[in-house]
# Entry
Amino acid sequence: MSEWQPIDTADKDTDVIVYSEFDGVCTAYYDGEVDQWFRSGKSPHDFDFVTSDAVYPTHWQPLPAPPSSGATT
# Structure
């Protein structure tokens, strides 16, 4: 796993893991249209994003690689 990095260095082209004091750790994506981070799977156009699913992260990490197809439990 990668080390936490400042949010201003985040990859804004893909979902990443983010940390904020209010939300803790979650996956998020950046929406350049509104210059804001949102929890993954949410669209800022589906609701009042300012009061619901906006995330104000301070740090980020890339998502880990998915498990190989031969993974067992």
Notes: Confidence is low (pLDDT under 50) at residues 47-51.
